[in-house]
Please model this.
Amino acid sequence: MPDIVVVFHSGYGHTQRLAQAVADGAGAHLIAIDAEGNLPPGGWEALAAADAIIFGAPTYMGGPSWQFKKFADASSKPWYVQTWKDKLFAGFTNSSAMNGDKHATIAYFWTLAMQHGGLWAGLGMLPSNDKAATRNSPNYVGGYAGALATSPTDASSAEMAKGDLETARALGERVAALAAKF
Model:
């Protein structure tokens, strides 16, 4: 079974809930980036040992949270020695608006993975885009490059759409299946 890590920052609990769904699908363990943008003890070592790394952060002002960006900048140390080269990567994000420029966050994750010499796994799921689709349908937000979720500003993490959580779980399952092939 591949060793998969979900490394994420969550500002209000929504991204944490997505991270858990991704981890459940992938059989992965979670590494939370704290409010100061730091990893817990052993976090860097766990990332170095992983076969696949899944990035997650909320989309704030058209990109990932500053805490995730701090982590990304700190990843220059493993970049320098190519520690993450040839690992499988994927990503997920959440914002309060249906579009919310979430793709910019996924593109940021993709660029980070490419700089590390990684391989990217997209969602591999068609969007729910017919008249029968509801907000609780899988991939209702319509992402291809990663899992996208939308949480209204006045909604708690407990009120997240079932379809968004199913989409996150499906991303985890896809990464696990692809990592097993490598």
Summary: The two ends are 11 Å apart (CA to CA). The first helix runs from residue 14 to 26. The longest strand covers residues 52-60.
